[in-house]
Amino acid sequence: MEITEYLPVDFRTQMEEETLCGAEEIRLRVGQPLEILYGDEKEKEIGLLTEAHMREVLNYLSGYSVYALEEELRQGYFTLEGGHRIGVSGRASYEKHGTSSCMKLLSCISGLNIRLAHEKKGCASVLIPWLYCGENVYHTFFFAPPGVGKTTYLRDCIRLLSKGNHLRAGKKVGVVDERSEIAACYRGIPQNDLGPRTDVLDNCPKEHGIHMLLRSMSPQIIAVDELGLPEDFAAVADCARCGVSILGTIHAGSVLEVLHRLQMGGLDLIRSQMRLIGLQRKPDGRRILTVYEGGGNPLWQGFSEPS
């Protein structure tokens, strides 16, 4: 289905063919206009979303069976065919398990964020020469605030390293895709091109997935998204001790913040084998890419087109 077919009929009739050209997100909030966000930071508002409109959208997204999405809704998101990711907000109910708690149900859904999947093949090609140390690959971490494009560049690096080129053979890459954002699997099948030598563990916690791939798939590189929890960094450290390179992303606003988080995560010992890549978004949609060595000293800076 085209993404517009998931939207309320009332709104489709107000959208022209080029309305979604360059769009990155479609946000729906009950009581507010439908909002379209573009890569150049422009916005477009259409109509006013009612509760009836929200029920209509949920019916389209779930195939008229919202209960079929109950497990995904507990996680706060789900993925459509084509790799589009739907973030969900509403009323959360929790249940306790000893000293911890977990979400039991997400109901009264009042907001959706449709993050449109855009593969930007080749966007990371300028970075690849900086990732190699001889025939090996540096442990590499992309950092930026949310929404700048870390996962997009990570995805393209995975594809390029897996594919190889006329100078270097492709690498075996294992991907732990906890949030289904890297491969955008739909019913277990990656919707994004991650290269010919890439294996994906979809919807699997990073700490478990990293160890599973190490035991079973003999990867040369393991890629993960959104490192943040102590157990994530512990699993990454285990991976590095096994001689496997790590590609990952971290939410951070500066290289000093990344270095602090890596130190707290116990990754100080691999700084000499590390590259850090910072992303900044320009008003015209271009990204400024800065490559740092493991100690935080800049090595290169350049621009990358958004598409």
Structure description:
By secondary structure, this protein is α/β, with parallel strands linked by helices. 24% of the residues lie in helices and 33% in strands. Strand 12, helix 7 (230-241) and strand 13 (245-251) form a beta-alpha-beta unit.
Labels describing this entry:
single chain, 307 residues, alpha/beta, eight-stranded mixed β-sheet, six-stranded antiparallel β-sheet, 8 helices, globular
| Rg (CA only) | 20 Å
Please count the beta strands (DSSP E, at least 2 residues each): 16
Poorly predicted residue ranges: none
Total helices: the number is 8
Helix percentage range: 10-25%
Mean pLDDT: 90
Strand content: 25-35%
Order of helices and strands: HEEEHHEEEHEEEHEEHEHEHEEE
Tell me about the largest β-sheet: 8 strands, mixed
Strand order of the largest sheet: 11-10-12-13-9-14-15-16
Query: What best-fitting shape do the alpha-carbon axes yield?
Result: globular
- What class do helices, strands and sheet pairing give? alpha/beta
Outline the fold blueprint:
Layout: H1 9-12, E1 23-29, E2 34-38, E3 43-46, H2 51-62, H3 70-75, E4 77-79, E5 85-97, E6 100-115, H4 128-131, E7 132-133, E8 136-137, E9 139-144, H5 150-163, E10 173-177, E11 198-202, H6 206-216, E12 221-224, H7 230-241, E13 245-251, H8 255-264, E14 274-281, E15 287-293, E16 298-304
Parallel strand pairs: 9-13, 9-14, 10-11, 10-12, 12-13
Antiparallel strand pairs: 1-2, 1-6, 2-3, 4-5, 5-6, 7-8, 14-15, 15-16
